[in-house]
Amino acid sequence: MKINSRLRLLGWSAATIGLFWSTPASAKDIAIAGNNTPYSQADVQKLAGTAVKMGVKEPVSLQLSGGKLTVSGSSNTSCTLSVGSGAAPQIGGISCK
Q1: Does some domain include residue 15?
Q2: CA atoms within 13 A on the CB side of 28
Q3: Which residue would you say has higher pLDDT here, 20 or 60?
């Protein structure tokens, strides 16, 4: 019985490690059609990814004006994020319609 328990534990461990290592590989870059922000490419991808998860369809456009970032795409859904006015986004809220 001890051998069965060890094999089962080994199987679960291998499956967990496999999922852990495969997750980052499944991440893809969001298609950006336009971007007038001063943010780094990594920040742009994070912001665009958030909007896509909220229903905005690719390719997306990011428009920054007065501390508000509007992310829109090929669907009727757009998201407005309060990001402040710094060189890096400081998300204070998000609203998608």
Answers
A1: no
A2: 8
A3: 60
Backbone φ and ψ for 49, nearest 5 degrees, come out as: -60, -40
Give the domain extent around 50.
Answer: 29-96
Whole-angstrom Cα Rg for the chain: 20
Provide the domain count of the chain. 1
* CB-based contact 71:61 (threshold 8 Å): yes
| pLDDT digits 0-9 by tens, 23-60 | 444 478 999 999 999 999 999 999 999 999 999 999 99
The answer to whether residue 10 sits within a structural domain is no
Does the structure show a pLDDT above 90 at 64? yes
Under 8 Å between Cβ of 89 and 83: yes
pTM tops 0.85? no
Please report whether residue 24 resides in a domain.
Answer: no
State the Cα–Cα distance between residues 18 and 1, nearest whole angstrom: 26
On whether residue 18 sits in a domain, the answer given is: no
**Containing H/E element for 25?**
helix 2-26
Residue type, 37: T
